[in-house]
Specification:
76% helix; mainly alpha; globular
Length: 198
């Protein structure tokens, strides 16, 4: 019971820190979102901010979705093509983010596109997500999660999604993000060749 209460409090604190950072970044830019200012806005100590987010950029990037993504992937039909499983899981995650708080998603993606430190950290967190998803894909296919083919496949799909999100952000977030995701997966499905422009 006590551990459940602690976990809820931890999640609430993390959510308050994230919300504070995003308010500051939306109003004054990412550079204004210092640890001290985020702490004041969230009504916590700077050490609390650092304890929950040792890397400042994670405040706008992470949201505990990796475990959920892995569970969704493991729940996909066993015989489904791995690329289609990832398409379904990633489309569900993006769709849920768009539905839950489109303004927050737009801000996160804008920061990814405009702030080099956020973009660099995005590359690192994408790799971490990839390792979790690679484990699930490896278990489904009877391969080792560290097989080169498993790692390349997972990295290619997540790298494609990252580029689709950046493309969306750089173009003013005017396109349909889910349509871009499907277009990205279709491009991966077609293979590494770059087809002539239609």
């Amino acid at each position: 019971m006590a551990s459940g209460l602690r976990e809820r409090k931890k999640r609430r604190t993390r959510a308050e820190i994230r919300a504070a950072a995003r308010r500051i970044a939306a109003a004054d830019g990412w550079e204004a979102a210092t640890i001290e200012r985020i702490a004041r806005e969230a009504e916590v100590s700077p050490s609390t901010v650092v304890r929950h987010f040792p890397v400042r950029e994670d405040i706008v990037l992470t949201d505990e979705d990796d475990e959920h993504l892995e569970a969704l992937l493991r729940a996909r039909p066993a015989g489904e093509e791995p690329l289609e499983s990832l398409r379904a899981v990633l489309a569900a995650a993006v769709g849920a983010a768009l539905e839950a708080d489109p303004a927050e998603l737009r801000l996160r993606c804008r920061l990814m596109a405009e702030v080099p430190a956020v973009r660099a950290r995005l590359t690192e967190t994408t790799a971490e997500t990839g390792r979790r998803l690679a484990r699930a894909l490896a278990d489904r296919s009877g391969r080792d999660p560290d097989d080169l083919e498993v790692r390349v496949f997972t990295a290619a799909v997540l790298g494609g999604l990252r580029e689709a999100v950046l493309y969306w952000a750089e173009r003013g977030r005017a396109d349909d993000l889910l349509a871009l995701l499907h277009r990205t997966v279709d491009a991966l499905k077609a293979g590494p060749a770059l087809p002539a422009r239609p």
